[in-house]
């Protein structure tokens, strides 16, 4: 692929991701403000967003953050939250024949829910290229890191995120992503099973087990609906 074509592909990925890149800004601001309220410096917030790059686990880490930090609890919670990345990377990895080995590994390092969803939708329609994927991931990553840093700096000015509604930005983004994959009653059944299991686990179990429970219930529901579809066929 020529340089001009790569630039065009990069711009296409960037354009496709633009709404979600804008949407992640308030989430990054909220995370930075929350992290600053827990005593993290702006440098620590910057490094956490740059090296972890996983909004869900970063928010969970802040929920259980205390001084001195319980590194075992933080690591286990992050593992529970991010275990879905195993399935996400396995899925998108089969759609990357145009990627070299190093390019594929780099793509997985920048994998996030929003990036995965957009890449999956692209792969359903046409060939997924490294340049287009880079257009998705690199600007999104940079905005997340910079928004987190900005949030840590001006956190005191933001006040309580619940008051201004910024706390809803995170679930709103995922609601939009889910609707992009809606396929009728089967999708509804999977979502209902996941939601019910997550709510029950959140009420009955401490920590972040509700995330694992929701994911497991979703997988089971997917398998059951898929088997039922095969039987009916």
TrEMBL record:
It is found in: Cell membrane. The chain crosses the membrane at residues 16-36, 43-62, 68-87, 131-157, 163-182, 187-203, 209-226. Its main location: membrane. This is 4-azaleucine resistance transporter AzlC. Keywords: Cell membrane, Membrane, Transmembrane, Transmembrane helix, Transport. It is a multi-pass membrane protein. It comes from the Bacteria. The keyword Transmembrane applies. Belongs to the AzlC family.
């Amino acid at each position: 692929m020529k340089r001009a074509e790569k630039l065009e592909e990069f711009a296409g990925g960037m354009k496709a991701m633009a709404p979600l890149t804008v949407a992640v800004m308030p989430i990054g601001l909220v995370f930075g403000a929350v992290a600053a309220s827990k005593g993290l410096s702006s440098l620590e917030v910057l490094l956490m967003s740059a090296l972890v790059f996983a909004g869900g686990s970063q928010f969970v880490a802040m929920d259980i953050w205390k001084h001195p930090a319980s590194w075992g609890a933080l690591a286990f919670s992050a593992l529970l939250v991010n275990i879905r990345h195993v399935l996400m990377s396995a899925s998108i990895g089969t759609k990357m024949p145009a990627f070299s080995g190093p390019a594929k590994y780099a793509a997985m390092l920048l994998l996030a829910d929003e990036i995965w969803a957009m890449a999956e939708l692209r792969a359903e329609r046409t060939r997924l290229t490294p340049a287009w994927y880079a257009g998705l991931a690199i600007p999104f990553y940079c905005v997340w890191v910079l928004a987190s840093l900005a949030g840590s700096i001006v956190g005191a000015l933001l006040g309580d995120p619940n008051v201004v509604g910024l706390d809803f930005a995170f679930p709103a983004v995922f609601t939009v992503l889910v609707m992009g994959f809606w396929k009728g009653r089967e999708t509804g059944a999977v979502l209902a099973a996941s939601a019910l299991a997550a709510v029950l686990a959140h009420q009955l179990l401490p920590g972040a087990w509700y995330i694992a429970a929701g994911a497991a219930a979703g997988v089971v529901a997917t398998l059951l609906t898929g088997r039922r579809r095969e039987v009916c066929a």
